[in-house]
Protein backbone atom coordinates (compact mmCIF):
# COMPACT_ATOMS: atom_id res chain seq x y z
CA UNK A 1 0.00 0.00 0.00
CA UNK A 2 1.21 3.47 -0.93
CA UNK A 3 1.60 6.07 1.99
CA UNK A 4 1.04 9.86 1.57
CA UNK A 5 3.66 12.21 3.08
CA UNK A 6 2.03 15.56 2.11
CA UNK A 7 1.09 16.55 5.67
CA UNK A 8 4.72 16.48 6.77
CA UNK A 9 5.76 18.72 3.89
CA UNK A 10 2.98 21.11 4.76
CA UNK A 11 4.11 21.20 8.34
CA UNK A 12 7.66 21.93 7.25
CA UNK A 13 6.44 24.82 5.12
CA UNK A 14 4.42 26.26 7.97
CA UNK A 15 7.37 26.04 10.32
CA UNK A 16 9.55 27.83 7.79
CA UNK A 17 6.98 30.56 7.44
CA UNK A 18 6.72 30.89 11.16
CA UNK A 19 10.48 31.28 11.48
CA UNK A 20 10.49 34.04 8.88
CA UNK A 21 7.80 36.01 10.68
CA UNK A 22 9.53 35.68 13.99
CA UNK A 23 12.83 36.99 12.64
CA UNK A 24 11.32 40.13 11.02
CA UNK A 25 11.20 42.42 14.10
CA UNK A 26 14.82 41.68 14.89
CA UNK A 27 15.83 42.52 11.34
CA UNK A 28 14.03 45.89 11.47
CA UNK A 29 15.62 46.76 14.79
CA UNK A 30 19.08 46.24 13.38
CA UNK A 31 18.42 48.46 10.31
CA UNK A 32 17.05 51.49 12.32
CA UNK A 33 19.56 54.40 12.07
CA UNK A 34 21.33 55.40 15.29
CA UNK A 35 20.32 58.73 16.96
CA UNK A 36 22.50 61.70 15.95
CA UNK A 37 24.92 62.56 18.74
CA UNK A 38 23.99 65.77 20.53
CA UNK A 39 27.52 67.14 20.32
CA UNK A 40 28.91 69.97 22.41
CA UNK A 41 26.34 72.37 23.73
CA UNK A 42 26.73 75.88 25.04
CA UNK A 43 24.41 78.64 26.19
CA UNK A 44 24.26 82.34 25.47
CA UNK A 45 24.50 82.87 29.20
CA UNK A 46 28.04 81.48 29.12
CA UNK A 47 27.43 77.96 30.40
CA UNK A 48 26.56 74.78 28.56
CA UNK A 49 24.85 73.18 31.51
CA UNK A 50 21.56 75.06 31.36
CA UNK A 51 18.35 73.10 31.32
CA UNK A 52 15.39 73.17 29.01
CA UNK A 53 15.08 72.13 25.37
CA UNK A 54 17.98 72.83 23.07
CA UNK A 55 17.50 75.81 20.76
CA UNK A 56 16.85 74.95 17.16
CA UNK A 57 19.15 76.55 14.65
CA UNK A 58 16.47 79.08 13.70
CA UNK A 59 15.80 79.89 17.36
CA UNK A 60 19.53 80.32 17.91
CA UNK A 61 19.70 82.62 14.89
CA UNK A 62 16.85 84.74 16.26
CA UNK A 63 18.41 84.86 19.75
CA UNK A 64 21.79 85.92 18.37
CA UNK A 65 20.13 88.64 16.28
CA UNK A 66 18.21 89.93 19.30
CA UNK A 67 21.38 89.86 21.39
CA UNK A 68 23.18 91.95 18.76
CA UNK A 69 20.28 94.42 18.59
CA UNK A 70 20.25 94.89 22.37
CA UNK A 71 24.05 95.28 22.47
CA UNK A 72 24.04 97.93 19.73
CA UNK A 73 21.14 99.81 21.35
CA UNK A 74 22.93 99.76 24.71
CA UNK A 75 26.15 101.05 23.16
CA UNK A 76 24.23 103.84 21.41
CA UNK A 77 22.62 104.85 24.72
CA UNK A 78 26.00 104.93 26.48
CA UNK A 79 27.42 107.18 23.74
CA UNK A 80 24.38 109.48 23.83
CA UNK A 81 24.47 109.70 27.63
CA UNK A 82 28.13 110.73 27.40
CA UNK A 83 27.23 113.41 24.83
CA UNK A 84 24.38 114.64 27.01
CA UNK A 85 26.69 114.88 30.01
CA UNK A 86 29.13 116.99 27.96
CA UNK A 87 26.25 119.23 26.85
CA UNK A 88 25.02 119.52 30.43
CA UNK A 89 28.41 120.78 31.59
CA UNK A 90 28.56 123.28 28.70
CA UNK A 91 25.08 124.59 29.51
CA UNK A 92 26.01 124.90 33.19
CA UNK A 93 29.08 126.96 32.19
CA UNK A 94 26.90 129.24 30.04
CA UNK A 95 24.46 129.67 32.91
CA UNK A 96 27.33 130.71 35.20
CA UNK A 97 28.46 133.22 32.58
CA UNK A 98 24.93 134.61 32.43
CA UNK A 99 25.00 135.18 36.18
CA UNK A 100 28.11 137.32 35.71
CA UNK A 101 26.50 139.24 32.86
CA UNK A 102 23.35 139.73 34.92
CA UNK A 103 25.47 141.42 37.60
CA UNK A 104 26.75 143.81 34.94
CA UNK A 105 23.21 144.61 33.88
CA UNK A 106 22.28 145.18 37.49
CA UNK A 107 25.33 147.44 37.80
CA UNK A 108 24.10 149.55 34.91
CA UNK A 109 20.83 150.02 36.77
CA UNK A 110 22.79 151.40 39.70
CA UNK A 111 24.56 153.80 37.34
CA UNK A 112 21.19 154.99 36.04
CA UNK A 113 19.95 155.51 39.59
CA UNK A 114 23.07 157.55 40.38
CA UNK A 115 22.57 159.67 37.26
CA UNK A 116 18.95 160.36 38.16
CA UNK A 117 20.00 161.47 41.64
CA UNK A 118 22.50 163.95 40.17
CA UNK A 119 19.81 165.26 37.82
CA UNK A 120 17.60 165.91 40.84
CA UNK A 121 20.41 167.72 42.61
CA UNK A 122 21.05 169.82 39.49
CA UNK A 123 17.36 170.65 39.32
CA UNK A 124 17.44 171.91 42.92
CA UNK A 125 20.52 174.02 42.10
CA UNK A 126 18.75 175.52 39.10
CA UNK A 127 15.75 176.45 41.25
CA UNK A 128 18.02 178.13 43.77
CA UNK A 129 19.83 179.95 40.95
CA UNK A 130 16.55 181.23 39.54
CA UNK A 131 15.47 182.59 42.93
CA UNK A 132 18.79 184.33 43.48
CA UNK A 133 18.71 185.77 39.98
CA UNK A 134 15.24 187.20 40.57
CA UNK A 135 16.26 188.82 43.85
CA UNK A 136 19.52 190.21 42.37
CA UNK A 137 17.58 192.24 39.83
CA UNK A 138 16.34 194.46 42.64
CA UNK A 139 19.80 195.23 43.93
CA UNK A 140 21.67 198.26 42.74
CA UNK A 141 25.22 199.33 42.87
CA UNK A 142 28.44 197.42 43.11
CA UNK A 143 27.01 194.67 45.39
CA UNK A 144 24.29 193.89 42.89
CA UNK A 145 26.82 193.82 40.04
CA UNK A 146 29.09 191.45 41.91
CA UNK A 147 26.20 189.11 42.62
CA UNK A 148 25.12 189.13 38.98
CA UNK A 149 28.65 188.24 37.87
CA UNK A 150 28.67 185.40 40.40
CA UNK A 151 25.32 184.17 39.11
CA UNK A 152 26.63 184.23 35.55
CA UNK A 153 29.58 182.05 36.53
CA UNK A 154 27.21 179.67 38.27
CA UNK A 155 24.98 179.61 35.17
CA UNK A 156 27.92 178.53 33.05
CA UNK A 157 28.81 175.83 35.58
CA UNK A 158 25.21 174.62 35.61
CA UNK A 159 25.23 174.40 31.81
CA UNK A 160 28.47 172.40 31.85
CA UNK A 161 27.05 170.05 34.48
CA UNK A 162 23.86 169.70 32.44
CA UNK A 163 25.83 168.89 29.29
CA UNK A 164 27.94 166.29 31.14
CA UNK A 165 24.87 164.63 32.62
CA UNK A 166 23.14 164.57 29.23
CA UNK A 167 26.19 162.94 27.63
CA UNK A 168 26.39 160.36 30.41
CA UNK A 169 22.69 159.64 30.05
CA UNK A 170 23.06 159.09 26.31
CA UNK A 171 26.00 156.78 26.84
CA UNK A 172 24.22 154.85 29.56
CA UNK A 173 21.09 154.54 27.43
CA UNK A 174 23.02 152.97 24.56
CA UNK A 175 25.23 150.78 26.76
CA UNK A 176 22.39 149.66 28.99
CA UNK A 177 20.18 148.81 26.02
CA UNK A 178 22.98 146.81 24.42
CA UNK A 179 23.75 145.00 27.67
CA UNK A 180 20.10 144.17 28.31
CA UNK A 181 19.53 143.01 24.71
CA UNK A 182 22.71 140.92 24.79
CA UNK A 183 21.74 139.36 28.10
CA UNK A 184 18.20 138.59 26.94
CA UNK A 185 19.45 137.03 23.69
CA UNK A 186 21.96 134.83 25.47
CA UNK A 187 19.45 133.88 28.15
CA UNK A 188 16.92 132.86 25.47
CA UNK A 189 19.58 130.79 23.68
CA UNK A 190 20.55 128.99 26.89
CA UNK A 191 16.91 128.40 27.75
CA UNK A 192 16.39 126.81 24.32
CA UNK A 193 19.39 124.55 24.89
CA UNK A 194 18.01 123.51 28.27
CA UNK A 195 14.66 122.58 26.71
CA UNK A 196 16.37 120.58 23.94
CA UNK A 197 18.58 118.83 26.50
CA UNK A 198 15.62 117.90 28.67
CA UNK A 199 13.76 116.56 25.64
CA UNK A 200 16.73 114.43 24.55
CA UNK A 201 17.30 113.24 28.10
CA UNK A 202 13.66 112.15 28.39
CA UNK A 203 13.95 110.34 25.04
CA UNK A 204 17.09 108.52 26.19
CA UNK A 205 15.32 107.51 29.40
CA UNK A 206 12.37 106.07 27.46
CA UNK A 207 14.68 104.20 25.09
CA UNK A 208 16.70 102.86 28.02
CA UNK A 209 13.51 101.50 29.55
CA UNK A 210 12.73 99.66 26.30
CA UNK A 211 16.28 98.32 25.94
CA UNK A 212 16.19 97.05 29.53
CA UNK A 213 12.85 95.33 28.86
CA UNK A 214 14.22 93.77 25.66
CA UNK A 215 17.33 92.59 27.52
CA UNK A 216 15.24 91.02 30.28
CA UNK A 217 13.02 89.29 27.72
CA UNK A 218 16.06 88.01 25.84
CA UNK A 219 17.57 86.73 29.08
CA UNK A 220 14.39 84.79 29.85
CA UNK A 221 13.94 83.35 26.37
CA UNK A 222 17.53 82.90 25.19
CA UNK A 223 20.30 83.31 27.74
CA UNK A 224 19.72 80.10 29.69
CA UNK A 225 18.79 77.91 26.73
CA UNK A 226 21.35 75.46 25.38
CA UNK A 227 22.36 75.36 21.72
CA UNK A 228 24.61 73.18 19.64
CA UNK A 229 28.02 74.59 18.95
CA UNK A 230 27.85 73.11 15.46
CA UNK A 231 24.74 75.20 14.74
CA UNK A 232 26.56 78.35 15.85
CA UNK A 233 29.50 77.52 13.58
CA UNK A 234 27.19 76.95 10.63
CA UNK A 235 25.33 80.23 11.28
CA UNK A 236 28.60 82.12 11.34
CA UNK A 237 29.39 80.59 7.96
CA UNK A 238 26.10 81.92 6.60
CA UNK A 239 23.90 78.84 6.96
CA UNK A 240 20.19 79.41 7.30
TrEMBL record:
| Comp. bias intervals (Basic and acidic residues) | 125-158
Q: Which UniProt keywords apply?
A: Signal
The highest taxon in the source lineage is: Bacteria
Region labeled Disordered — which residues? 29-51, 125-163
For this entry, the protein name equals Chromosome partition protein Smc
- In the record, which residues are listed under signal peptide? 1-29
